[in-house]
Amino acid sequence: MLLIHARSFSYRARTKAVDEAEELTDENRSMGLDNVLVVFTSVERGDFEALSSVVSKAADEVEGVCKAVKPASVLIYPYAHLSPELAPPDEAKVVLEALRSELSSRGYKAYRAPFGWYKEFTLSCYGHPLAELSKTVKAKPLEVAAEVEEREYLIMTPEGELIKPEEYEFSEGEEDFKALVLKEALKVELKGGKPRVHDYFRKFGFEWEPYSDHGHMRYGPEAALMMDLVMDYSWSVARSLGIPVFQVKGTNMFNLSVKAVKEHAKLFGDRLYVMNVGKNSYVLRYAACHQQFSMLKDWVISYKELPFGVFEIADSYRLEQPGELLLCFRLRKFYMPDLHILARDLDEAKKLSFIVHKRIHEEIRKLGRSYVTIYNVTRDFFRDHKDYILELIRREGKPALIVFYPEGKYYWVINVEYNIIDELGRPREIGTFQIDIGNAKRFNITYVDEDGSKKYPVIIHTALIGSVERYIYAVFDTAALMEREGRKPTIPTWLAPIQVRLIPVSKDYVDHCIALAKRIEGSGIRVDVDDRDMTLARKVRDAEVSWIPYIGVVGRSEVSEGVITVTIRATGERVKMKPEELINRINEEMKGYPRRPSNLPMLLSRRPTYKHV
To answer: Which domain holds residue 36?
Structure first.
């Protein structure tokens, strides 16, 4: 703001400066004032997001000058030349009018010149020391809505009993649930330490990117393949729910001047990534919500087509705190296989949620793990749908933690978080689902009901296997538990970057191994050949270090017998197998899982050595 105490000031609007210029009226087209404090004002990006704070502070500054110079009136004069970081016109108009209104409410005769016009003006400035001043008011970052009340925690058993966390007696076998309750409800700081999974991640090429903002990852050849496989798998899991699912793709930037985008974004507060481009501010999406909802508002939907799902693997951004960042788990950029299921009403959404709930548990059990669960619910939803929540918990067969929230704060009425307890005994949320009753109206997503009326669907948000990186975190955390128990750490065969490694006992058998490898590769199995000039022991050791599920050694006896001597990592067995037997065994393990070719050269001698960060 540039504040001029003017003996006289007059202006007249001439031509439009922007398309969004305000309509002129007899009152604002021109004006002449004496003894006026003229407040030349530029509204900047971010001011609108902190409207009440910015306007209050700006009014305080203006009022302070008014008390000193005693003007007869105040004129708020839009002036774009004070800043290169201008807010969008629609936002600027709101802020300027809010400032005028605030000064008026404080008892000042306050006027505002029209926004978006080239104006001629005449100014006569007093010459006293306070006649010319400049002020800057800074906006705070977009804030989360303040907590209305403290959260309340209860434990609900499959029998329907509700118990305060501090009074619950944990039974044998409830160690994981105890860790969840201690951390989340009783706020006990659990024992820390360096996760073993960090070493595993580096082995497979999951690393921080040092040239980027902290919290952004890079994925080497093996890691990139694993990411792609999990993305493929997440899509197949979404399609397996028994309802139509449409896969879409979209952008990751959404304009904060769109009311629906802004309202939804405010719930994420200081975890937002906001970018300023031109005159607009954009939020980088934190899931697929904005893109899918923007599409769905343009779809013509009939009740006959419900329920259906919309799916996207969304690059997602959350401005997590530096001290909380963890490879493959808490990131500032990650990939979310986000599924939104549209239901006709809450009753249909509840029925569908049982299918989602079952599938989420099934997927983690395939990794040899189980979830302990947090049910975040609004108080009125719990009161009216207690039997539904109890049925979800009963189907888990173990107690769950209930967290109560006030009504109307979020778009959801129930938000279920599925946690594993990691190798260090800490809860780690992987899967999730929510029932959303607010965003269909916010984004104007409707369907035509049987009677021809338009209605808002209820939306289930779910990440059935969690984010791509968190699913991989669960895979490697499971391997860490294996190692802690004295077993060889393994990953599922379908996810292993190389599933079979063939090792010739000498260079005389390299060509034979290559021919075998091509035969195995023809069955859709990822295979390589260690043709390096090294000892057999060194090659076997390197294959073990690389967690190759099937290590095949080929020498004179194997060639003569038409077999491969195979070491199976998962069981520790060493057996002679014909190529067809090996192929059939791996194909059996791969049923229901995606396949992709290797993105590494078949010969190890053709691969560079990577330095890990």
So the answer is: 2-134
